[in-house]
């Protein structure tokens, strides 16, 4: 038996960008120089990346190391904006 699988595009982010545990996953994005916590729905993951199914768009700038970031905190972006 054969199955035809439709290709799909996925938004992948580095695992270290995720905050939270279990189903309470979120990421911080930068909006107008401010960190904003966004709840996300995750899909498949591996040791490096996690698929984001809902919650952010590919145009959002995701904070990669959010360990000490708080929602609403002023932030500056440095390079890497097109990755």
UniProtKB/TrEMBL annotation:
<dbReference type="Pfam" id="PF25989">
    <property type="entry name" value="YknX_C"/>
</dbReference>
<dbReference type="GO" id="GO:1990281">
    <property type="term" value="C:efflux pump complex"/>
</dbReference>
<feature type="domain" description="YknX-like C-terminal permuted SH3-like">
    <location>
        <begin position="12"/>
        <end position="76"/>
    </location>
</feature>
<dbReference type="InterPro" id="IPR058637">
    <property type="entry name" value="YknX-like_C"/>
</dbReference>
<dbReference type="GO" id="GO:0015562">
    <property type="term" value="F:efflux transmembrane transporter activity"/>
</dbReference>
<protein>
    <submittedName>
        <fullName>Efflux transporter, RND family, MFP subunit</fullName>
    </submittedName>
</protein>
């Amino acid at each position: 038996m054969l199955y035809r699988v439709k290709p799909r595009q996925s938004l992948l982010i580095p695992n270290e960008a995720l905050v939270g545990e279990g189903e309470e996953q979120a990421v911080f994005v930068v909006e107008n120089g401010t960190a904003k916590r966004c709840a996300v729905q995750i899909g498949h993951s591996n040791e490096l990346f996690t698929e984001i199914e809902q919650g952010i768009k590919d145009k959002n700038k995701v904070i990669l190391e959010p360990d000490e970031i708080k929602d609403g905190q002023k932030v500056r972006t440095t390079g890497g904006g097109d990755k």
